[in-house]
Amino acid sequence: MKGYKLLFTTFRIKKPQIHMLKSKINVVSCCLFFFLLLALFLPYRVFAYDSSSGDFKKYLIALDGQFTGYGWKDLHPEKIPWEYYRTTKNRNPLMFAIFGNNPKHCTLFLGGVHGDELPTVYLMFKLADYINENPALFKDKCIVIAPIVNPDGFLSAKQTRINASGIDINRNFPTRDWTAKAFRQWTAKGKNRRYYPGTKPASEQETLFQMALIKRFKPQKILSAHSPLNFFDYDGPSSDLNSFEKWMEQICKEINHPLKKFGYYPGSLGNYAGHERNIFTLTLELPSSDSGQGKKYFEKFQPSILKFINLPVVGSPPNIRIINNYASTGNQ
Ligand SMILES: [Zn+2]
Predict the structure, then answer these.
(1) For the whole model, what pTM was predicted?
(2) Which of 193, 216, 301, 330 has the most crowded Cβ, counting Cβ within 10 A?
């Protein structure tokens, strides 16, 4: 008891000190309140990193480390004028590059939607390098490349298909059938965590990122790279899928890569962009997820990718179509 009294006396705070402490607490509270207000009312862009910032440079260094580990020594992401306005749960930038400015002929490329599909990331960075070095390719066009849609999955210690919240980005788009079917289908198919759609549509930054690219650039064509199912699949305007199919058949024959009508899922890009928004949406499934095959795949698919960029699309949704005689001329 005696010891307790002594302790209490020693640490007893005098009245003027209490007053000072109170005013200090008031000042700190005011500051916190001010910053909270600032955070609530300033536009999001103010907080977006700028692509020349230290944080972005750190991201490029992290990517470089990953690329070196895969033996991807011929990629030059530092030479591309990347932009970004969003970050992921792990604070990785969701970056993209724009080449050319013709909004009437725009193609959007997406890679690394699933973080463990490694050669898709190589393919998109290599494509960005190639386009960047050949300005004639985008002189009268618009080409948008988002090489890693799921950087958290790609940069995790063991690469994952899903993002850092455990969600499959290609099941998270707000398609009309999402609420009724996404969770039910996932449950019916055995609740594989790799395909988890989340608890609500468009809940993920990576999904919002792709939706924002589609909204901003209004691409007539989208190519999303995946692996390892080894085929081409497409979704698009029902009015003109026949001409597109003819064109695709020819491309597939030229490069000996099968065409498969895979269908679409609740919350998938094919459903959101192709089926619901009449955008020619091509899924390129590479033959494997082996990082060592990236260069070989770029060489194999580059000619058809360039043809896809050049494929003329006319009209506006829902009456959008490719120029029909293109299928018979074969190339451009
Ligand atoms: Zn995939």
Answers:
(1) 0.83
(2) 301
